[in-house]
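User: Modeling request: complex.
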Amino acid sequence: MNKDALFIKYNLNLTSKEYFLYFLFLILFPFAVLLSLNYPNVILDQGTAHRIFYFHVSVAWVALYAPFFSMIFGIFYLYKRDLSFDILSASMAKLAFLFSICVLFSGPIWANSAWGVPWDWTDSRLQSFFVLVISLLSYFILRGLIIDIHKKALVSAIMTLFASVNSVLTWGAIRWMDNPGNHPGSVLGKGGMDIDMKITFWINIGAYHTLFLLFFFIIYRNDKINFLLEELRVYEE
Amino acid sequence: MKESLVTIDNLTITIGLKTVFKSMSFSIYGGESVLLTGENGSGKSTLLKAIFSGQDKKQIQWNKKSERDRVSYLGHELGLYTSLTLEENLEYFSGISKKPISKTKLIGITEKFGLEKRVKDPVHTYSEGMKRKAGIIRALLVDAELLLMDEPFNGLDSNSVGILFNLLMEVGKSTTFIIVSHEIQKIKSIVNRHLHIQHGRISEIND
Amino acid sequence: MIKSILIKELLITGKAKNGIYSLFTLILTFIFIFHYTLERNNNLSIDSLIGLKWAIIFLLSFIFIGQSIWEERESGAIRINSVYLPAWVFYLSKSFVVFTILFIINILIVFLFYIFFKSMKIDSLVDVFNQIVFLFPAGLSLSLLGVMLSQLSHATRLKEVILPVLLIPLSIPVLLFGMEAERNLILFSGSILKPFVILFAFSIFYGSLGVLVQELTNDF
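Assistant: Request completed. Predicted assembly structure:
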C-alpha cells in the first residue's frame, strides 16, 4: 500500500456532521451552563452547591454507558480482528475515564454540602463507581504495557468486558442493595423533580451528550492519526 | 499423487504492524523430511509456531483432525518444567498427548542421549546441553505425524549431534518432519525437501 | 489426562517447598504485626477482625496466584499444553489447584487469628464453619479470576507486577460482599444460603469469562 492510499483509507477531513456538532455545542453548552446556574430553584438546605447536580448527573450518565460502547467496539474487534475497532474502543474508553474523573471531582463538591462529608466509603454507589474508575485505569495501564498491537487490542477488548460489568454494578448499586447508603436514588423515579429542574436537567443532558460526541470525534481522529503515523513509520522501514 | 498432511493457504502473519508473511501458501506431504532455512528474523520460528499451535485455523488446513492432534514441537524453549525431574516431565507429557511412544522406546532414546542416570534429577540441575537433550526427548515422546524442530542441534556436543542425526533418520521413515537449521550441508543428507523463507515468501530450493 | 494434570500441578506445588515456607512466614508476620500494632490496650472487635482477615486473604492471594503461574510461562510448557490440552481443561485444572492451596491457607489464617486475637471465639465446629463458609466461594472466585488475569498479564512487560492492578478492581466486589455476608452471619445470625449462592455465582461468572479468555489468548 502506498502513502496516498493510506491517507485515503483514513479519512481525516472534517465532515458536515462534525461541523454541525461544533455549532450545536457552541449554542447549547453555554446556554445549559447559564441555565443551571440561574434558572431552577435550589434545594434550600443544600445551597447553591446543589446546582452542580446538573453537571454531575449528566457526566455520570456518560461515564456509565461509555464503557458499553467501548465493549461493543471491542467485541467487533474480536469478531473482525480489524484494528479500526480497537481504535474506536480505546477512544470510547478514554472518554469514559475522562467523564468518570469529572464525576469523582463534582460528586464530593455536592456531597460536602448535602452530607457534610465529601466522600462516604460505606455508600455502595460511591464504592462501585470507584471500582469502575480503577478498572478503567487498569485498562490504560495494560494498554501501555503491551507492545504488540494485536495482543494489545485483544487484551483491551477483554478489559472492556470487565469495565462494562463494573458499570452495570454501579448502575445497580442504588437499586439492588438493601441499604445502599446516602446517595440519592434514580432521578427518573416517581416524584423526582420539579418542572424547572426537569427542563434544566434535560437541556444539560443534551449539552453534555453533544460534548461527549464532539470529544469522541476529536479523540478518535487523534488516535487514527497516531496509528497512521506508526503505520507510515513501519512502512518507511 | 501424494496426500498432503497439512496445507498452508494464504497465510498472513503480522507482528505489531510488521508483516512477517503475506499470503504464504505451500503444502507438506506425508513422509517428507523438510529443511526450512532463512535469514535471522525471516520468520522460520514464527511459521513453525503457527503450524504447531494452529493459529489462523482457516489458513492452516489439516488433512485429518487426528493428524492435527499428533504434532510434536521443539522450539527455543525446552517445553519442560524445570522444577520437576525428567521422569516426571515425560510421564506428564505422555499422559496428556494422544499417542505417546512406548515406554521401552522412550527409555531407549533416554539411554542413547546418556541421560538414563539423571532421569530422577530436576531439570534445573542439568547443564544447557543436557537440557537441550531433555527437550529433544520430550519432543520425540509423541508418536507424531508431524515433528517440528527449531534448531535442534544448537548446544549439543558432537556425539549427541550424531545421535540426533541417526534418530531423525529413523524417525523420518514413519514421521514427517520440518527442521529449521542453518547447517544446510550437514542436514541435506537426511532431508528430501528444502524450503527457504525470504522477504515474507517461501520458495522451494532444488539442491 | 486429568490424573496426569493434577499430579503435575501437585508436584510443582510440592517442589516449591521454599515458596510454601516463605508464604507461611509471610502470613505469620502479617498477623503478628497487626496483632502487635492494633491490640495494644483493647481487643479488636469481631467486626474489625473479620475485615482484617479478609484483607490479609486478599493480599496473600495476589502474591500466591502470580507465583503459581510463573513456572508454566518460564518453561515454555504453556505452548505445548495449549496443543495437547483443551484451553478450558488447562485453565480449570490450574484454577482448581490454586483454589485448593488458597483454601488451606485461609483455614490456616483462621487458626492463627484464633491464637493471636482474643475476640476470635471458636467454641464449636459451628463457629469454625461460620468463619470459613464464605471463604470457599470467595477463594474460588479469586482463583478463577487470578489465573485468567495472569494469562492476560503474560502479554505485558511487567507480568506479575501488573497482576494486582488487574485483580483489585475485579475482586473488590467479592471482598465487600463476602465480608458483609460474614459480618451478618457472625454478628446478627444472618442467612448463609443466599449470600453463598451469590458469591458462587461470581465464581461461575469469572470461570466462564476465564475459559473464554483462555481460548482467545491461547497463542500468547
